[in-house]
Amino acid sequence: MPEHAATLPTSFRADVETLWDYHNLHHKIGRSDVGIGLGSHDLGVATRAADLFRRNAFPLVVFTGANAPTTVERFPRGEAVHYREHAVSLGVPADSILVEPRARNTGENISLTRQLLAEQGTEVGSVTLISRPYQQRRAYATCKKLWPEVEVTCASAELPLDEYVKSIGDATRVISMLVGDTQRITLYANRGFAIPQPLPSTVESAYHRLISAGYTTRLL
């Protein structure tokens, strides 16, 4: 496996592009009742949520997330709290943001956000899930399992693959996350955590080649 760098290794570019395209659902963004920013190491999620709020895509934002081992150093007060602060700095009114600070995985992001909104008396018929680009398909499948009655649209930072890798600064990390999320599509559906999603043979082959190349740190 190549050393950490901010550019993709040429030898694996085609396989990385295959997984990248598979996970990004390319949904058309319309109006929804609430935008839900899923916590992670990527502050771009909060940036995209703020951008969509300013474009009147939704009237309310929920940031959800506690910490994971990969985020506690960067976001010591919790992912959702830091996301909120970032969104406020970008012009989102503080009273248009709710914080769900306990979720430690995508399932909890959905279920605890749903609970929070119910407690607030907010009626929800549609949601926009804002996540990392390679988390879209898993977030969608999880939400449709745990909150099947809502209409779900997925959104992420609108960056081409190379620009996204550069923004993270670590191609190895991005590739490993892509591989891990691909595994979770099938694994989580089999465990009842998400609805099933198609896995084209081209995606499966690319996934296995990247595992053979050593991008395994995010596998369960």
UniProtKB/TrEMBL annotation:
A Pfam entry, by short name: DUF218
InterPro entries: Cell_Envelope_Assoc, DUF218, Rossmann-like_a/b/a_fold
Ranges of residues in domain DUF218: 45-157
Gene3D superfamilies on file: HUPs (3.40.50.620)
Protein name per UniProt: YdcF family protein
Organism: Amycolatopsis samaneae
